[in-house]
Design brief:
By secondary structure, the protein is an alpha/beta fold. It has helices at residues 5-9, 37-49, 60-80, 94-104, 127-136, 153-159, 182-191, 203-206, 211-214, 239-244, 279-292, 297-315, 343-352, 365-370, 387-404; strands at 18-19, 22-23, 25-26, 88-91, 114-118, 139-143, 164-170, 195-199, 218-222, 233-237, 255-258, 263-265, 321-324, 333-338, 355-356, 358-360, 376-380. The chain folds into two domains: 5-29 and 296-404, Aspartate Aminotransferase, domain 1 (Alpha-Beta Complex); 40-292, Type I PLP-dependent aspartate aminotransferase-like (Major domain) (Aspartate Aminotransferase, domain 2). The protein contains 15 helices and 17 strands. The protein has a seven-stranded mixed β-sheet with strand order 4-10-9-8-7-5-6, sandwiched between helices. A four-stranded antiparallel β-sheet has the order 13-14-17-16, covered by helices on one side. A two-stranded antiparallel sheet has the order 1-2. A hairpin with an 8-residue loop joins strand 13 (321-324) and strand 14. Helix 2 (37-49) packs antiparallel against helix 11 (279-292), helix 3 (60-80) crosses helix 11 (279-292) and helix 12 packs parallel to helix 15 (387-404). The structure holds pyridoxal-5'-phosphate.
């Protein structure tokens, strides 16, 4: 389908909202995206017409719901270029996916083993590895970020050794917007016999993904940043890795047999989906993928970058404006500060003009430390944002700069 931003906006009821008497300009897409009618309706429709628990009943609606749920798994697999639906585990979100991997590898990580992450990781790709440092004496190494916000690839290369057990990197930073060359890095990790985890939460929404082509062992994404509901995410793992990983939660559905003396596990991905899964949310994610993939991802990406560049051109005229993250390969995330002003104050003033941006650490405290700052304001653009909204951002930031100087 051809790309027409006004037509796309028409599918998002919430975008017609007024905030403080002004038209909403929603520029907080890296935190979460709004939902099109197709997604809202798909979830309601399922609950209105066919709903039961999955995998357990023999009655008609149990079968229909199971089909819809497993159908959503196939959609995620196709979306990520995974070989089979069985390579996809449903989780609560990207955070749970990363925790699942880290926990699943517990038996394989011991004292002195090295885990390589980077300074630009989201806390959800830092904290689960700290658990291994605390409990096992594992060593976490942080790949430095250069001044322009790009990853220091030479440093990464020299850090990888026979001690490396895991390399876990963000594909696209939620603050800097930096897109890391995952495909280039993968062979370095493989050569050391280490496991390569990719936090693809932002990348999945801003570029076409093929996990097999990337060459990673694991890839994590979340539904609510892909125009889908909250409470659902997905983990891709190679068949070998999913066999190797310990289960995360114990309970119904994840076992084959339970005896007083021992248990046997179900096959992946069910081994990792204990209890009743987020059925309606998974179906909502499937609907979000159907909706999103009717557009050309390359075209969406170009549109978002055009809005980003337009906003950046305007903001650069403001004297106190300081951009954080200007890597050659970057997506449509614009983190900034106004010198002498607190990011929270900037965001609050923008809100008066109906412009919604985030302010804070963005769950990336080591990155803030790297740049010697406590927080940033952040405008992040999605499929439905317009050049006019970029102009409104610039005008509102100008007013904030004037007011806070
Ligand atoms: C949002 C985000 C996460 C966490 O995703 P949740 O859905 O909140 O679990 C992890 N990594 C990155 C890069 C993110 O942007």
């Amino acid at each position: 389908m051809g790309f027409n931003v006004e037509e796309i906006r028409g599918q998002f009821p919430i975008l017609s909202r007024k905030i403080n008497g002004k038209q909403l300009a929603y520029l907080d897409n890296a935190a979460s995206t709004q939902k099109p009618t197709a997604v809202i309706k798909a979830m309601t429709h399922q609950m209105e017409t066919s709903y039961a628990n999955v995998h357990r009943g023999l009655h008609t609606m149990a079968n229909e719901t199971t089909e819809a749920y497993e159908g959503a798994r196939q959609k995620v697999a196709d979306f990520l270029g995974a070989p089979e639906a069985e390579n996809i585990v449903f989780t609560k979100g990207a955070t749970e996916a990363l925790n699942l991997i880290a926990y699943g590898l517990s038996d394989e990580i011991g004292e002195g083993d090295e885990i390589i992450i980077s300074q630009m990781e989201h806390h959800s790709n830092i904290v689960p590895w700290h658990f291994h440092r605390e409990r096992k004496g594992a060593v976490i190494k942080f790949v430095p970020v250069r001044d322009d916000g790009s990853l220091d690839l030479d440093a990464l290369k020299s850090m990888i050794s026979s001690k490396t057990k895991v390399v876990s990197l963000v594909h696209m930073s939620n603050v800097l917007g930096t897109i890391n060359p995952i495909k280039e890095i993968a062979p370095w990790v493989k050569a050391a016999g280490a496991i390569f985890v990719v936090d693809g939460t932002q990348a999945a929404v801003h570029m076409p993904i093929n996990v097999q082509d990337l060459g990673c062992d694991f890839f994590c994404m979340t539904g609510h940043k892909l125009y889908g509901p909250t409470g659902i995410g997905a983990l891709y793992g190679t068949s070998d890795m999913l066999e190797r990983l310990r289960p995360f939660n114990g309970g119904g559905e994840m076992i084959e047999d339970v005896f007083e003396t021992h248990i046997t596990y179900n096959d992946p991905p069910h081994k990792f989906e204990a209890g009743t899964p987020p059925i309606i949310q998974a179906i909502g994610l499937g609907a979000a993928i159907d909706w999103y993939t009717q557009y050309d991802p390359a075209e969406i990406h170009l549109h978002e970058l055009a809005v980003y560049s337009h906003a950046l051109d305007g903001l650069r005229n403001i004297n106190s404006f300081r951009l954080i993250g200007d890597a050659p390969q970057k997506g449509s995330v614009l983190a900034f500060n106004l010198e002498g002003a607190h990011a929270h104050d900037v965001a609050q003033i923008l809100d008066k003009y109906g412009v919604a941006v985030r302010a804070g650490q963005h769950c990336t405290q080591p990155l803030m430390e790297r740049f010697g700052i406590h927080s940033t304001a952040r405008a992040s653009f999605g499929i439905y944002n317009t050049l006019d909204e970029a102009d409104r951002l610039v005008e509102a930031v100008k007013k904030a700069a004037h007011f806070l100087s």
